[in-house]
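REQUEST FORM: STRUCTURE PREDICTION
Request ID: SP-0412
Submitted by: Lab K.M.
Chain count: 1
Length (residues): 202
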Amino acid sequence: MIRSASTVGALMVTLVSNTALASPNGAALEYREPAGVDVEAKWSALPEELADVVGASSTAFRGEILTTREAVGGPGPMTVVAVVVDEVFRGSVASGSVVEIEIPLNGPVSGDRSTRPVPVRGYEIVAFLDNHRDVVEGGVFLVEGGFAWRPNREGVLYSPRLQRDWEEIIDPIGEYDVFSMAQLRHATARDNARQRRQRRGR
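STATUS: Completed
RESULT:
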């Protein structure tokens, strides 16, 4: 797990340089912290936050969004997305199946779509669902550049490619929580093993 600003700097320079996150002019990137953010504290809190998401889930998978539609009702506005499952981390869903999930919106349905995170067709996501197949809090991540991204404040787009010019700032923690896919797989596998031990002990 990422534990220091220097490690984060090396990670992000590599990530941004190897993906389409950077500006098209191809300028060299240097590590810079976001203003007004306790970078060390934010990154250090991520392992526990991920453990909470995994622990609250009974189903977790990676897949591509096929369709989206907006709906109003229940607890509030949401985007209903159909996802074709490519990889299963836990639960009874099958790879290749289509799962429909409801993703709450951080804002009204009407208004400027660009001011709030909205999942769109073609996005690759990781979703953690509870026993009722509802998304657990903080349980949707967008997969880009081999990493899983989750906006950590309002007004941030799901896609880091669309959010900003990454030459301006190279540490995403002021806007995104970021995990490698290996970290998500490991956290889920570890919790799966914990649950199996608990069942054997009953």
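NOTES: The CA atoms of residues 70 and 79 lie 4 Å apart.
Reviewed by: T.R.
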